Amino acid sequence: MKKSFVVLLVCVFLVSLLAGCGSQQKAADKPKEFKPEKNTEFVVPYGPGGGSDLYARMMAEIMQKNKFVTTPMVVVNKPGGAGSVGDVYTFGKKGDSYVISTYVSGQVTSSLMNKTPVTYDKLTPIANLALDEYLLGVMAGEYKTFDDFLKAAKAAPDTITIGGSGKGTEDELCVGLLSKYTGAKFKYVSFNSSAEVMSAMLGGHVKAGIYNPNECDTQIEAGKVATVGAFGTKRLGGVFKNTPTFGELGFKEVVFQQFRGIVGPPNMPPEVVKFWTDAFKKATQTEQWKKDYLAKNGLTDNFLGPEEFKKFLEGENQKYTAILKDIGALK
To answer: Do 322 and 267 fall into the same domain?
Structure first.
């Protein structure tokens, strides 16, 4: 009887032990989760009021309002070096779970042009949020179609001027694509801002300009400016609904859209990347983002998770390198 009782106790002990081991195994297998417990620095490598600043502040507002993030997100502007100052700052926060940064096409071109130490592949990709469109604008009535503009350029090589914001920027890449695939030789003229480009074009100092939708829509509505070609893959709506893409015009290689994404420092923990990816995805699905940011500013929805964004960045880097070499900006 005693022997049977002892055997029973041993069996109970073994079952308990195995159950405990199973619970410990389950606990060990459970993936880590992250939830911010303090302020997050939301770095913008450009000055206040610009495109990157705009979507950072919009995102921070949406996330806080909808409680996708319950702790403060503090937007911190780190302008300088065409985005490189902010990139260096973010890179220096290795492994930090409380630093994220906006990341756009200009930061890739800047690192290529200026040989900066922090390239796209040294930061942690989190998500791409949208694509900003580009258009070729001219004075209303001067060129009715892109074909008219192209004929003028071919008749007088290097005399048809196109203004853009900065040297080696997305605007110059757009002009480089036009020159490469249309057979015409355009002359790129660099300005400090899109507002200066518009002033120069309205004043007759350049024949055309490269613009984002929200940089020229007012002048189009006023009847002063017309857009004769779009660099995106689909036509835009509103005042741009009659503007054909360059693909429609027979130049399928002339495609350029500025990505607007989010990155983190090197060695950001996987659970932190997952948290931010999920939070940004939820934010891009809100009506506020769709109406007050995408529709209002003429952007295209294009959410990409970490792995997709990483591959996308690799492709963009190769494309920018090729174009910059074609236009002589890189050797």
So the answer is: yes
